[in-house]
Fold each of these.
Amino acid sequence: MPFSSDETPTPRQSVFRERREDAINRHLERTPAIYRGSIRIHPDADEWSRLRDDAPLSLFLTGPIGVGKTHTAWQASRQWLATTIGRTGRMPSIETWRSTALFDALRPDNRDYDAKTLTRTLQRADLLFVDDLAAARVSPTGWTQERLYEIFDERYINRRPVLITCDVLPGQISHIVGDRVSSRLGEMCRGGVLLLEGDDRRKGGVAA
Ligand SMILES: Nc1ncnc2c1ncn2[C@@H]1O[C@H](COP(=O)(O)OP(=O)(O)O)[C@@H](O)[C@H]1O
Ligand SMILES: [Mg+2]
């Protein structure tokens, strides 16, 4: 139910506006403090987040450590949320996970999550954002890779977007997520693999 800001909103539009602001604030509350500030992001990430007609469905941010992948992804996810609400009138769900926490949560012996419920939630979320996909030093077991396959295959066949940050390319993570997930990610992110270049900003000396 988009409307322009110079018109007096109808009661229905006011309710919609409130719900939109609530959704954006909830997302901001779930955002780790250092990623909350508004930053300018790479034009391709910006296009993706604004659902431009020729933008890819999914975005895979890659590049060396400290180049700004995670900051870019959080900013892009905020913009994606606002755009999607404006475009569809729906309040989309976003699941955000650091890969190491995700792999832990999907382990068969994890007591905090029910694997079936979590798998379903991650299959159905309107956007799945996984940060630092290749970060795990120990690759997930076959069982966890099976859950990842269930999640990514369901998203793949239903054309549901993913937002990934990773310091290697989709084709180089088979040993972590398994061949089938790696292959699907390659296709889901075709045209949406964005290499961020530059120095490690954590070491300072690089202007924003
Ligand atoms: N667009 C940006 N403008 C200014 N500083 C940034 C920007 N993106 C990232 N940074 C800074 O760069 C550092 C690394 O960012 P981060 O997103 O964690 O990198 P990566 O995920 O690639 O390792 C942080 O200190 C962050 O504050
Ligand atoms: Mg990062």
Note: The chain has eight helices and five strands.
Amino acid sequence: MQVVRHLSIPGMGEVYFNKQPYHLTISENLQQHYSFDPAGRLLTSYLNGVNYRRGLNNAVLRREQIDTDGKTRRMLSADEIEALIADIRARVVSITEHVQYSELTDLLPWLHAILDWDYPRLCQEHERFRGIYKPISILPPDQYQAVVLQAAEGCSWNRCTFCTLYRDRAFRVKSPDDFQLHIHQVKDFIGEAIGLRKSLFLGDANALIMPQPRLLELLRITNEEFPIGIRRAGGSTFQGIYSFLDIFGAERKTQHDYQALQALGVKRIYVGLETGDQELFTLLNKPGSPQACVEAVHMIKQAGIAVGIILLAGVGGATLATQHVAHSIACVTAMDLAADDLIYVSLLVLSGMEAYTQQMHAIGTRALTQSELSQQVSILKKGLRAVYVGGPKVSLYHIEEFIY
Ligand code: SF4
């Protein structure tokens, strides 16, 4: 039930309070907003036309609409985070002074909890996070609010030329005991705010490649710790388990294996196809092939699990652009996707991709200009929407927007 109350505060105006089981949102004149979890940690804010989202690791993403079709996105520096926290705390101090003489005194415990989180204490949360998780390099956009469980760490392949996401760690599958301990640490760290999260994401890059008996054991533990489909005390429900899978791993599973995953709550598997063009796929050193990917997707879907297909716009540069687009649309078309599947078009990020850049230089291609890249995204999206009328949602995947 939504309960919004308000208070007139001299110098501040009308201040609104939306108290929910898992978050408190405060709004000044319905123009400046900030929200906090039940422990009092900042979740999001909207101040002077700028959105801020704080991650569990105390990173803060800044997003600002610059014109009708553009947004700027960047992570705040440590100094900027400190200034933001100080600004919001000063606002909450003023609000608390007035709330204590009002009829809203039931809000005081939450407001005092917020004031307990100054910048140094939030920095300690960063250290705590690092003790529980390896860096969470990326998630699919619809899973940014999942509870991430690192059943495995890293990528079992780690050799695609355009990807450096997991180069900082060796691939490792957790033992059942390690995984159980990890889950207990995650629950303790997120606390009651876990009620804001409605899905479970099994990390890292391809946890599903682990041997099936171990995978089933870790999924059983996940089910015991987070009952799926059962309404929790605050009203939210875990809808299921989600994970990435590269094609290399997909080739090793049978339909029966996928059915067992489905029976244990796996709802969607995200497959990084990147391109449907065999020449470019090989050049990128992706494991498997586009055709193997199509076959794996058919098998996954026949087992009753949805898929999320990820394409990479801009990859292959100008020389391979035409074949990348044509073969990617053809490949995704061959997957026979349905309305519960998803298609993401992600944008190639060149910074830090020396191996890929040298490779493209060697074949004599050049990076797409910004306008060519926008055009390629548009052609991919239009082409896929034309194939799948009323079918899977086709969306842009802004990896620079990712924060956990
Ligand atoms: S399989 Fe995926 S995570 Fe691993 S290196 Fe390739 S793109 Fe990166």
Note: DSSP finds twelve helices and 17 strands in the chain.
